Every structure is written in C-alpha cells, then in structure tokens.
Amino acid sequence: MTTNKKAYKVRLGIFVSLGLLILFIIIFFIGTNQNLFSSKFKISTNFGNVSGLQVGGQVRFSGISVGTIENIQIINDSTVNVIASIDSDVKKFIKKDSKASIASEGVIGDRILTISQGSTKSPEVKDGARIESFEPVEFDDILSSIQVTAGNAEIITNELAILLSDINDGEGTIGKLMNDEDMANDLDRTMENLRKSSKGLEENMEAAKHNFLLRGYFKKKEREKERARKEAEKEAKKNK
C-alpha cells in the first residue's frame, strides 16, 4: 500500500510539473507575440472621438504592429486622451511630427491606432511625448454622404427620363429638331450654305493673293510673319 502511495505521488508530481511547464511555455509564447517582455516607451495623443478604440487595441507603424493601447481617458467634453505603449526598438523611426490616426482592421474589424512616419529631418519622439492626431472619419458620416449622393443620382435620373420622354414626343427645341423633318431639312440647307460660303471665301482670298494690285500687300504680310518666326527662334535659343 505504501508503494502504491509513493507511485501515485510520483505520477502526480510529474503531472503537475508537466502542467506547469506547459503553462510557462504558453505564457512565454503569448508574451513574445504580444511583446510583453520587450522594452517599451509611451506616447500620447488627443482625439475628439476615439470611434470605438479600446484599451488593448493594436498600435501600428508602417503597417506593422508595434504596441498596444494602454489607457483611454476623457479629459473634457471635447477631448479624449489616448496613451500607447510602443516597443523601444521602433522609437528611432517615430518622429516628433509623426501623427496618430484611428483606422479599422479590415472593413468591419477592430479599431486600431496608426502612426505616420513623419519627416526625416525631424528628431525622434521622446518617451511620454504627445503627438498630433487626425480625427477619424465616422462610418455614419460616410453612409450619410452615400445617401445624399444616391438621392441626387435619383433626381438626375428622373430628370433625364423626363427629358428623353419629351424629346421622343417632339416637345421642346431638341425634340422638334429631332422629330420635325422640315426643321431638320432647313438646318441641313443652312449648313450647306455655310460650307459654300466658306469655300467661296477661301477661293476669293486665293484669287486676291495673285492679283497684281494686292500681291505686294500679301507678300509684305508673309515677310512680317517670317521675321517674327525668326525672332522667336532666336529668343528661344537665348533662353536655353
């Protein structure tokens, strides 16, 4: 009986030891993934509305998860302060003029804090510093804008339908023009007369150029054009 008790205690000890070992391994992997064992620094920023951002949410820089939201506190009726805990190894990349904004992880995912890169000439941010922020775009505002756009599109569509119906019925100037054969023929004759007039004008100008009384005038104009062209080419060469 004593031997059985000893064997039981040994098995129990081994089982508890294995359980503790597995627990430590799980804690280690979770801590590694969540960067719990790496050195941290803190920055803060203010928003008018955090749009569902929560403590424990991710902080991303250049699309990479670099920290978590440590605290969210209401300062007054128009300001909410957000404190983020970030890995120290990315501190040199975050600048004083970097800006924070709130985004979604996917279309309907959790809200996350994103930090822009900032300018290369700006010094790196210090531990505990506050950076500027962009106010997030609310999903409700986007839906409202889409609804307004859809309403306007519906109004335009209805007006176009009415206009096309009037044209088909021969109402209005465009409708009469498209459906009245006499008016269409008058328009064709008018355009033909304009073409003939234009052609006659070109022929008269060509004849005038060869007239000995006006030949000197047209040659003078051509020389002036040539002189202006050469001067423009000289000016262009000087500017090169």
TrEMBL record:
Record keywords, A-Z: Membrane, Transmembrane, Transmembrane helix
Alphabetized Pfam families for the sequence: MlaD
Ranges where the record places region Disordered: 221-240
Domain annotation Mce/MlaD: ranges: 42-118
Highest taxon in the source lineage: Bacteria
Annotated transmembrane regions: 12-31
PANTHER family according to UniProt: INTERMEMBRANE PHOSPHOLIPID TRANSPORT SYSTEM BINDING PROTEIN MLAD, INTERMEMBRANE PHOSPHOLIPID TRANSPORT SYSTEM BINDING PROTEIN MLAD-RELATED
Name of the protein this chain belongs to: MlaD family protein
The species this protein was found in: Flavobacterium ponti
